[in-house]
Amino acid sequence: MESNYAKENVPTKQPPPCEKARISGEDGDQKRPRSIETPPRERPQTPDGSALLSFSLPKSARLAKPAEFRRVYEQGKRFEGRFMTVFILPTRNRAHRLGITASKKAIGKAHDRNRAKRLLRESFRLSRTELDAILVKYDWVLNARRSLLKVKLEKPLLEFRQIAEKVKLGEDQLPQGKRSRTENI
Fold first, then answer.
1. Strands 77-80 and 183-184
2. 179 located within any domain
3. How many domains does the chain have?
4. 137-161 b/e (C-beta count within 10 Å ≥ 16 → b)
5. For residue 32, what pLDDT band results from cuts at 50, 70 and 90?
6. Count of alpha carbons within 13 angstroms of residue 169, beta-carbon side
7. Using one digit for the tens of pLDDT, what is the confidence trace for 85-96?
8. Statement: the pTM of the whole predicted model exceeds 0.90
9. In this structure, what CATH number is given to the domain that contains residue 83?
10. Which of 77, 83, 121, 135 qualifies as a cystine partner to 148, CB 3.0-4.6 A?
């Protein structure tokens, strides 16, 4: 059973040409601007990646092994702050090295621990000038406190710079291997 639907419903005659047909060419549609005439869009400039890399914390400036952390905890000096607890121990390296801890017990959820670590790492990184003023190079271990999560970067940065200043002023009094008493800011 064949259908005659197409023969009955589809016209076979072509429609007459329109009077205002669009013609491509030089005289085609003069109301539309040419692509050459359109102004370029303003875009924000992308930052130069190499300039940003100069601010990064290289691997040589990090404490990585648990034994390094333990050595700083056991033999270093402790500074208590509102947002962090800092342990320092003189080292023979050419630069200061950083280790950061943000425990589940002290901070809580993983995203909070990650934020706390970012804030402490950035505080250390932005204090490079203050750290370079310290003659003796140290291994630093920064322990995050829960109060760190309620503030922005400027407060932990200020606290870290105060601790660095204390270290600079009291370099001759810092231990060379034994754990000393706790200092509060």
1. parallel
2. no
3. 1
4. bbbbbbbbbeebbeeeeebbbebbb
5. low
6. 6
7. 999 999 998 899
8. no
9. 3.30.230.10
10. 83
